[in-house]
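Q: What structure does this chain adopt?
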Amino acid sequence: MRNSSTTVSFLNSHFLMDQDDLEGKSQAERLEALYQISSRLGSTLDLQELLNLVIDSVIQLTGAERGFIVLIDEWGSLQTMAARFLDDTEITDNEIPVSRTIVQRVVSTGESVVTSNAQDDPRFGDRASVIGYQFRSIMCAPLKARGKVSGAVFVDNRLMSGVFNDDDLDLLVTFANQAAMAIDNAQLFQQTDQELNRRVEELTLFQSIDRELHKSLDMQQTLDLVLNWAVRLTDAEWGAVGLIEKNEARISAERILLVFSYEGDEENSLQGNKIPLDHPTVSSVLQTEDTVHIRQTSPAESLGDNAGFAQLAVPIRLDGKVIGIIILESNYSTRFADGDIDFANRLSDRAAVAVGNSRLYLRLQKAIEARNTFISLMTHELRIPLTSIRGYADLLARQLVGPLTDQQSNFIEIIRRNISRMSGLISDLSDINRMEANRMALDIYNFDMSTAIDEVVNRFRTDIEAKQQTLSVELPATPVHARADYAKTTQVLGNLVSNAYRYTPEGGQVTIKLTSGVENEEYLRVEVIDNGLGMNETELARALEMFFRSENPEVREQAGWGLGLSVADMLVRRMRGRLVLESKPDQGTRAIVFLPQANVMR
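A:
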């Protein structure tokens, strides 16, 4: 116990009388002193400070040699909370203690006690503690607040008999009643303050738990984290988390509780166990859809070898259904604390969200896998007939099987253009498939960026000139080398230039501009600029989405699948660069590609 605070010292010096003065005072003067002291009981809500103030006041009011305050703790045991001598010094553990016999009697009956000589008092004279410690003058009054006895005030004088009388006891009882209310208020304040601190700590803890749970979408890892938190932060010795699944091993496909995660003795691990739903604890949770707390488990209820100890089973609910159970068992006690039960329930709510996310992710992965398998098969099957069609179209175009009329030549050219479109679509779908499956291999090396630009310009020069557009290229005076995949770089620039000239009216302008040493000289920048149709803010926000196309009729007039920009963006990001779009309606679009520059040391 700590020393009396500044508040106590202040009160002692201003309101408390010393022993010599007290003996000569009249009853009226003592009551006045009691009033003054009582009026100060509300000056602090610090429990220990208040207890020291109360016991010092009691000693001075009664003329006692020593004083004790004993309170009933949450488990119903008596705990000495303040113990002082007349000179305000604390009584240490190795000094003569309070008479537990008398205090227990007062607390049990709620009636105060005074004795002028405990040695001769027939009520206590045969008590070993009274005889052994030679207690003589004793008073003890209960502390009553809100209709309950919360403890007692005990004062004594071991040297002298006849120190206390009934008037002294009345004074003590009066003061004890007032002190009890002040102590009760301080305890409530302390409990509220502690509860608030616990709540803040718990919220901070759950923030950490949420971050950890949302880092992983793997079901096993998610449930491992949930169980680890549950066992660590409760009185559980071990635990298990199970989800309700179909028992595929049986023809009937009956449902079971499949244990995904186990925390405890590895030799007796339950992980992978299939627990029938008629297991007593599991059945009880499913029937009540609520937490089950068993204080002494039977062999049938315990999942391990912990029969006779506490078990806590908390349902994991998702969309109003119980999808799993967190089961905790303890060898330390026959009950879980209320705080542990509340924590486990709040944790199960978070577990449900995490499990739901994991299941959605698993379904998404299966859907992506099915889609990738379909695209892979489709692109493979389409390439075979498309190659054949291209071959025969080329034979006809070269008139190797006979002369063609002008109309026939036009038809063959239309066929060849649509073959190119189909080839481009198949190539784009194949690239997306490989990138999403992380199966696209890149050939990264240093190359002159102007070479890639020249290749793209030569590829589209004829088409651009056919629309009577102007194509200009702006290059630095010295070569600029990129560190990227050359083929993928030309594919990206090709997609951007294709979009630029197709969505720019006849007579428009298309510009390709190369700049070196941007963003701390780590990147080069290639801009493809047009003065065509442009995009509004809504269209610009969705421009990189797969299969997105503007509803603008002039855009819809142009053939396309809405894949060019999304493929370009994905390829650039895989090469550790980025694609930025700037656009305004009827003013054109600027596509900016940032790629790592080769002459930067990394």
